[in-house]
Amino acid sequence: MATKIQPVNDYILINPEKAEEKTASGIFIPDTASKEKPQKAKVIAVGPGKFDDEKRVEMSVKVGDTILYSKYGPTEVKLDGEDYFFIQDSDVIAILK
User: Does residue 87 lie in a domain region?
Assistant: First the structure.
């Protein structure tokens, strides 16, 4: 289970939103079409932060936050049949309120 994973340094484990199955106007997108991967995710686990001049830098997110992240940053992993991403704290663009 993903919650038993503890990221190290400034890494964050996130659960990305699923790609849209249909457009806003109601047209279904077939599996063969290229679907835009969303850049919105729920934070599952957070590392303790990286060291900078022998001091640990506090992370900008916490477990349970919904975030927007850089699409070029994530490392995709499959855990217990689910897709998750590891990103670094610097890949977080915004926290959604």
Answer: yes
